[in-house]
Amino acid sequence: MEREEINERLSLLARRMEELKADIHTAITTSFTHFDSSFDTTTTLSEKVKALSEEMESLSLKINSEVKGQLSISTGDFQGLSRQLGQVTAVMGLLEKLSQAQQLLENIAQATASGKFLSAASSLQVLEEALSNPLCEREEEIKILVSLRTEQKVLKQKLIQQLNDTWKGMVGWSQVENMQKTNTADQLVDTVNKRDTDLELRQCELRLPKSSEVEQQIIQEVVLALESLGQLDRKIQTFGRQFLEYVIFALVLRWQKVEVTEAIVGQVKQVTFKAASLQKQPVHVNVFSLMESVLDMLNENLLHIKVVRHSSTDSAKVEVTLMNLLGEEIGERVLQGIVKECLSSAIPSTSKELEGFHEVVAITKKFQERLVALGFIDASSQTLLDYVQNVNVLFANKKCQGILEQARSLMTSDLHDTVQVHAGASGGELPPLDKSGGPSREKLRKMAAGIDPLLSSSCFRMPSCRISARVKELMDLAYSTLSEACTSSPQCAAQMFYAVRGIFELYCSVVPTYHAHSIANFPQLAALHHNNCMYLAHHLLTLGHQFQSSLPEGVNSTFVDIIPEVRALGATSFLEQMNTQKTIIEQYLQGAAGFVGLEEEKNHSCAAKAVKQALHQLTHLQKIWLDILPTSVYCKAIGILFNSFISDVINHITVLEDISTDAARRLVLLTKQIDDRGTTLFSTSSQETEDDIKRSAIAKAELHRHVSLWSKFMELQLVLSSSLQEISDRWSDGKGPLASEFSPSEIKQLIRALFQNTDRRAAVLAKIK
Amino acid sequence: MEDQEVLTTLKILIIGESGVGKSSLLLRFTDDTFDPEQAATIGVDFKVKTLTVDGNKAKLAIWDTAGQERFRTLTPSYYRGAQGVILVYDVCSKQSFAKLDAWLNELETFATKHDMVKMLVGNKIDKEKREVSKDEGLKFARKHHMLFIEASAKTKEGVQCAFEELVEKEGIDSAEEDDGTSQAR
């Protein structure tokens, strides 16, 4: 079965194969046949397309060559036309502007001529604006523009000129001296007598437009025109400068009282300012009212005119008056001038006046308000008020400056004028020395019990002497200043205290410099200067304590640090003077040539002259010093100089090789002269009350006390006039006074010079060892 | 005053208050003179006198000092080397007697010799208004180991004696050991 089935199936397959073969064959045949024919068709079509595209190409070429050419030609045409149009338009514009300009020029000329300055100015401005921008590309070739510009400039200058003239005619200052030059015929009102004008300017004139409507119109027109031409500021500047110079500084602040007279001349109000009287002391009230009236007048006639300005802070437009402009220009300087010339002198110089100063403040405040109302100064300007409200500081400054000036002038005055300082003269009405700082009474009692109770009460007193009157005044000034400081405000007090310190510091610098020559060359001035310094130092010791409690806290009121300097100042210059005098005396004594060979008249007269000269110089010093120096200082000073002198004399005589009898006699006479003069030198005025004998005794005692070599000199005198025996007795085995002054070799030398070589001499010499 | 004998030179000092008569005592002794208006001594005066005591000659170098404070020199150099001192007071002035302590004090401060002979002299016994009795003087002298004498420069009484005793004592002192006791008359 299966086989059969397979067979069946095989046969079926075979059959199906046969059928498939037949189908394929048919199919293939069919497809080939179709292909053939469509191929043909395509080929034909392709050929046709080719032909067409060729045609199209040629056509396109044709179009390109022909149409494009025509297009470019037409564009060129179009552009050309446009250009022509442009040129025509420009020319037309130019012509229009030119005609406009011409019109403006005519307007300007006309307006200027007819005095309509404002319209002239605005036309000019329009024209200027128009001409300022380039009108076309090749402007420079258009000659008319050049001449138009020239014309415009000419017109502008003309206008300005005219404005200037009008302004000048109506507004301005003239100093009387220059009147002939500046015044034109119609302004010449006041014939000036030249003789009245001296070197100082005492008169000036102001021209202002009348306050009537016409003139105000004109001036308004002028101002606005000037403003639009940018010329106003210069005018105001000049006006302000002259205002300052001619009126404020030359008249108001200088003379304070100024007569103002007004006169109407034509369009012009003529105001004459004339210094009325010379008042040395500036009166601020006068100055204020004068300033107010002048500014009022200016405001009424001229300065009220307003112009429009750009605000300085933002671009908004603001109206400002000429007064504002003037104020801007000179306001600050006017205020400073017032402060400097007028208010500064109103600042009080004493505490009393200070109390009345609030009136000045009030008046100044009013004046300030008035100026602000007028618009002359800005409300924020505080120059005046700051100044017066700062019065305490100003007062102190002025006060201290005054004190120092006064002190300096005292210091640079002559030292010659003297006053007597009395021992024990106290400060008088000045505050007593501060007790609180000192030891308690109990402590003082204990101290008194412990120490020698004989301590003199005048221990710390200034000794009687003479000082320069000016130095006394200087000290008084210091006292009065400190007294005043005690009642002043703390700030003021402190400043015054330092001013007083300043006085003494100034003294240390000024006096030794300023008086250097006199102090070095005049012994009496050196002595005075010494006293002056000691006097100041004496007072400085207690000056601080005296006022400590009344001065504000924090002020370390002491002057003791200045004392050493002041003392050194006096001491140094006096010592220098002493040295100078010592040298002078030494030089005189050199004339004695060592007292050699006095037995010869020639030598003797030389020696006598030298001694006389030296003694004369000492006596001269006594004359000038005794009256000035404190007695103790005088004795010390003259003692030192005299000691130096006799020291030289002793040294000369003790080295002499040989002293003849005549020479010895003459030497004794000379030493006697010195002896006598020595006593006279120490006859001081404090001994006036004593009788003659006692006085001479005291003088001798002072001589002993202050001239250390005096005993030696006396011994020498004795030796010169003594016998050998007397010398021997005075030596007394070295137990006599001669031995305490001279050495054995010195005395032996003297004996050999005085006595001939004898046995007696040898015996005496042998005893001296 | 002959030089053939070797003389001892004694340095004698006269001290005391001003106006008690120091210079007058000296002048009476050396020159045998008296001046009622004797001027105040300034600084120091000096006299030499030779004295014979017990056959021995002594040369006295006498320094007469200023009593008045203002006439005294600043440094009392005359104390140096003094061997004897005459301390004078005025019997008519209690005050001059009271000041003796101060003078002794100064003497001890400046004297350079320890064995100095001290003599207290009460002067002006010729005057009537006596304020210091002889006894008081004697007591003071004893207390301070001093010789004592009352004298009058005016009447010469006691003057020579005072100097002689001083020299005599000085002679004893220099010859013997100082026994520490002082004589008072």
UniProtKB/TrEMBL annotation, chain A:
Residue ranges of domain Centromere/kinetochore protein zw10 N-terminal in the record: 13-103
UniProt key word Zinc: no
Organism superkingdom: Eukaryota
Location in the cell: Chromosome, Centromere, Kinetochore; Cytoplasm
Gene3D superfamilies in UniProt: 1.10.357.150
GO biological process terms held by the UniProt record: cell division; endoplasmic reticulum to Golgi vesicle-mediated transport; mitotic spindle assembly checkpoint signaling
Principal location: nucleus
Family to which this protein belongs: Belongs to the ZW10 family.
Protein name per Swiss-Prot or TrEMBL: Centromere/kinetochore protein zw10 homolog
Record lineage: Eukaryota, Metazoa, Spiralia, Lophotrochozoa, Mollusca
UniProtKB/TrEMBL annotation, chain B:
Keywords recorded for this protein, A-Z: GTP-binding, Hydrolase, Lipoprotein, Nucleotide-binding, Prenylation, Protein transport, Transport
GO-annotated biological processes: protein transport
Catalytic activity, as annotated: GTP + H2O = GDP + phosphate + H(+)
EC number(s) given by UniProt: 3.6.5.2
InterPro entries: P-loop_NTPase, Rab, Sigma_54_int_dom_ATP-bd_1, Small_GTP-bd, Small_GTPase
MF-aspect GO terms: G protein activity; GTP binding
Highest taxon of source: Eukaryota
PANTHER family reported for this sequence: RAS-RELATED PROTEIN RAB
NCBIfam families given in the database record: small_GTP (TIGR00231)
Family to which the UniProt record says this protein belongs: Belongs to the small GTPase superfamily. Rab family.
Protein name: small monomeric GTPase
